[in-house]
Amino acid sequence: MRRNFLIMALATAFGMALLGSVSQALAVTCVGGTTLGGASGANYAIKVFGEEQDTSGSGTGATTVDFPSPIGVGGIGVFHTDGACNITGGEFIYFSDNHLTGPGTLPSSTIKGFTGNISPGNLSGSYTVNTNGSGILNLADSASGLSFQFGITVETGNLEFRGARLDAGDPVVIIGEKQATVTLAQFETATTVLFDAPGGGGIPGSLLGVGGSAVQAQVAEHADPLTGSTDILGGGAVVFNQNGGLLCDSPVGNPSGCAGANAGGIIGDINIALPNGPFTTDGTQNTQATFNTDFSFPLGGAGFNQSSVLWGTANQSGFVMTTATAGSPTTGAALATAGKNTAPGTDHLSAGAATLVTPPNWATNPMVTITITNDSVEPLDWTSIATVGLADAEVVSGTCGPTGGDLASDTIGLGPQTCTIVLSNVNGFNNQCTPADSATLCTKATGNTYACCTGLHTGTCAGVETGTLLIGGNTHAIVPGTQSSSGVSIPVTCK
Q1: If you ran DSSP here, which 8-state letter would residue 436 be given?
Q2: CA nearest 203: which of 76, 336, 52, 322?
Q3: Which candidate, 29, 27, 31, 52, places its Cα nearest to that of 40?
Q4: How many Cβ atoms are within 10 Å of 436's Cβ, its own excluded?
Q5: Parallel, antiparallel, or unpaired for β 354-356 and 487-494?
Q6: Better-scored residue on pLDDT, 58 or 22
């Protein structure tokens, strides 16, 4: 990275002069009510961001940038104040000079992430605040070896502070937001994510050559319906606008993969897993997302990692940072702000039960069609669709794949997506007749053991078969239905 050293020198001189004037003019105090978090202290989520000028590109090829180009620097984290002007611990992930650092790594990888260990973590420091709410914030990041000094202003209520860096180094600003007591349920919700700093959500070096890209997402996290409340997964839809540039968010194992983007936005669905966390100790988590091919997304199989931290009076908001693509650390700081949606949505079946009735004269085989409608913000995946405990009925057709499939999310402007399951009598309901009654109620027919004719639904041919339709391995809730570790099921009756 190269910078304009004249500008740096002027900025440094200005910063030192400002720092001197601050120290002389402001009466600093640590009295409760004028410190970060008050006398008892608190946790604050932080987002640090800015841009540098990258002059290393040659201006040719899909993986180089035009010369020169801005590249994002910054990071996110959380720290704890003690009410006595000390920062006693925290976690911080930071990107600068083509290098990503953080408090820990994800399981079985080299990707940086949060650990849930805020004490001591990798962040420490101190702060001073005057009676006007202005002061100095010092942060030391042991993972990167960097230190920062910010001139900050604490806003009314001690809920938020903002500031700009005073000392020499990456030209970054900081936003801090107070964090409430964290619960697991605060992670299990639908969220809107907007990459707002720096340079949008772009990964410098492969897109437009002039910075980043516009990226917005709507995602949801929830308990895995198959395994229970402590195992969280999710998904959602992401909108990209590359302005006709290259979209390079490569599948794992193919880091050079890029695709040409439309002049406008394109939409892709993602499935989300959590390598570890979420952590209620400090409101952090790490996620791993994978694109599928819904909406004809050009890079199905592409994957990326993100870390996030909650904040707000009810932890209804968050800061998000992309930490890796295709299993490799990010090449630029793509940062986002997130807020909760009103509802995550769900999936619906057109019927909570199905009944197949064979005509007494055997004129036709009965069929029943069941529709799955995805009203949720994430794609629905399943591994199988089949009848259970029914000898004479099975899935014969429909657009919901019986051996596994995916139903796209209900996302921007496209409405709920649907598919169908068709059940039918395939064996003549032979098991409804008792062989001993063949002389009076049933007649022997070629290809069938006993085929009920005019006597169907009477006497010993009045019996029914009962079983279920199982949608196996569903990745989120479907109603109505009964959820189990195998999937969601509804009753099916044959008569």
Answers
A1: G
A2: 322
A3: 31
A4: 11
A5: parallel
A6: 58
**Structural domain count, the chain:** 2
- Domain's final residue, options 280, 311, 340: 340
pLDDT band for position 380 (50/70/90)?
very high
Return the ∠ at Cα 251 (arms to 248 and 255), rounded to 5°: 60
CA–CA separation, 366 and 494 (whole Å):
9
The reply to whether omega before 491 is within 30° of 0 (cis) is no
The Cα 297–Cα 262 span in angstroms is: 11
108 and 246 together in one domain: yes
Expressed as residue numbers, the domain containing 192 is: 5-340
Which residue, 444, 420, 416, 415, is CA-closest to 430? 444
**Per DSSP, what are the bridge partners of residue 355?**
493
Q: Quick one: DSSP state of residue 358?
A: -
213 with 89, same domain?
Answer: yes
Claim to verify: residue 10 and residue 32 sit in the same structural domain: yes
- The Cα–Cα gap between 345 and 375 comes to 5
Calpha distance 224→222 (Å, rounded): 6
pTM value is 0.82
CATH of the domain at 404: 2.60.40
Provide the CA 139 distance to its chain's centre, in angstroms: 29
Q: Where are the alpha helices (DSSP H) in 294-339?
A: none
Tell me if 495 sits within 8 A of 355, measured CB to CB. Answer: yes
Residue 135 CA: distances (Å) to CA of 49, 159, 169: 20, 15, 19
The 10s digit of each residue's pLDDT in 187-244 is: 998 898 888 776 554 443 333 333 457 788 899 999 999 998 778 889 999 887 766 6
Contact 128, 85 (CB under 8 A): yes
For residue 21, what are the contacts with CB-CB under 8 A and spacing of at least 6?
none
CA dihedral 186, 192, 196, 202 (to 10 degrees): 110
Helices then strands, counting H and E runs in the chain, come out as 1, 37
Owner of token pair 């959602």: 236
Side chain identity, residue 275 = P
Contact predicate 333/74, CB 8 Å = yes
Structure tokens at 30: 């640590």
> How far apart are alpha carbons 471 and 483 in whole angstroms?
10
Instruction: Report which secondary-structure segment, H or E, holds 398.
Output: none
pLDDT tens track for 244-283: 656 665 444 444 456 655 566 788 899 999 998 899 999 9
Q: Could you tell me which residue, 248 or 298, shows the higher pLDDT? A: 298
Q: How far is CA 137 from the centre of its chain?
A: 32
